[in-house]
Amino acid sequence: MDLDTARQELEEFIPHVKNISDSSIKKMAGRDLMRFKEFKKQGIAVKFGRFTQKENKQIQKNVEEFLSLTGIDSAEKLLFTSRYPDDKDTIHRLKTEHHFCEKISEGIPRPWRLIYYRARKMFDSNNYKGRYTKEEKEKLKKYQALHGNDWKKISELMSRSNLSVAMKFSEIKSAINYGPWTKEETQKLMNAVKEVMRRKLKTENAGSLSSLEQSNTDLWIEREKLYQQLPWTEIETKVGSRYWRQCKQKWNSILTSKLTRGQQLYRGTNGLQAKINLIKRLYETKAEDASEVNWDELSNAIGDVPRAYVQSKFYRLKVSSVPLWKRKTFSEIIDYLYEKKLPELEEKL
Q: Myb-like domain: from which residue to which, for each copy (predicted)?
């Protein structure tokens, strides 16, 4: 299949396919396209976002079955073959002979690459080692000075996962403030986000910049794009005194207050309609667990607000409306809201 055809066929299942590199498209055409089509026949949509408990169990089952089939004696050898140079050739041969890609992704409607990364995270013995000691932090700084941001190399030297060492270095590389945010820090964060968003908007659509340039107030914060993915490590550098995760959490907090201030989304008629829309959207997802819900998409049920705002409104709704909600499953809570609370809200409206 040629590249253009592959991209076109994948677009049905992956809306953001135009942003994926040509080499990744080729791999997905081989590993994922037929699987996606089979899932479509079964009425199952391709999923993204957080993995559910059910999917995690399926990955575990797939890995265990593949180990049993091939005789490879551990999940670590299977998923981190480079750690076992003496067995590397044999493991690669067994993976090829027994169709590793197909087996590992069986029964999971997601791109193979995401399933593989999730499996590696689940079975990495270096992934759950608790807090870093003072000695480890000093080693990490020393290794980063020697090897730069080669986290794979550093993770091997420290027997920690790639993600763990990268995130920990992000926290310790400068004097980080863990207390309440000062006015100066908050302003630095706002300026940093504004700066990266100006550049992003200018790149994506020069026409979008005019409203941003004309405003000297915080109105620019209300743009929908501002709570989409941002380059947090760059923003961390600009703020200077906080690591990236703190910046992201603070930014979500700022957005929630800015976007809701003065909008009166949960007052009067608007509030009733927002609750009705939220319950209907949640019911339509047929989700068995909160982790299966795409909260970013659901934010449209209320308006241009961050996912955290939608989640907090759902929490208040279930606490105030569903008796004994702690004893109910997620789907039971949604069913109750749909069957009992929705008619009451519609009547009020």
A: 124-172, 173-255
In the Cβ-directed half-sphere of 86, how many Cα atoms lie within 13 Å? 0
Q: CA nearest 56: which of 115, 111, 7, 16?
A: 115
Over residues 168-227, the pLDDT tens digits come to: 887 776 556 667 888 888 888 888 888 887 777 666 555 444 444 444 444 444 444 454
The whole-angstrom separation of Cα 295 and Cα 227 is 12
Assess contact for 281 and 298: CB atoms under 8 A: yes
CA 33 – CA 136 distance, rounded (Å): 44
User: What phi-psi label fits residue 96: left (phi over 0), alpha (psi between -120 and 50 degrees) or beta?
Assistant: alpha
How many angstroms separate the CA atoms of 123 and 160, rounded?
13
Given the candidates 1.20.58, 3.40.1350, 3.90.470, 1.10.10, the CATH classification of the domain at 134-173 is 1.10.10
How distant is the alpha carbon of residue 296 from its chain centre? 10
- What DSSP line would sit under 50-85, residue for residue? SPPHHHHHHHHHHHHHHHHHH----HHHHH-GGG-T
pLDDT digit string (tens) for 91-124? 999 999 998 988 999 999 988 888 888 888 888 7
**Which three-class secondary structure state does DSSP give residue 21?**
coil
| Residue with token string 């992934």 | 127
Nearest-CA neighbor of 286 among 11, 107, 45? 45
Cβ 122 vs Cβ 163: under 8 Å:
no
Q: Which of 194, 195, 219, 223 is nearest to 208 (CA)?
A: 223
Contacts of residue 150, defined as CB under 8 A and 6 or more positions apart, other chains included, come to none
Inter-CA distances, 47 with 9, 106, 268, 293, 309, Å: 17, 14, 36, 10, 23
Strand, helix or coil at 107? coil
Which residues have C-beta within 8 Å of that of residue 58, sequence separation ≥ 6? 106, 107, 108
Q: Which one, of 326, 296, 330, lies nearest residue 311 by Cα?
A: 296
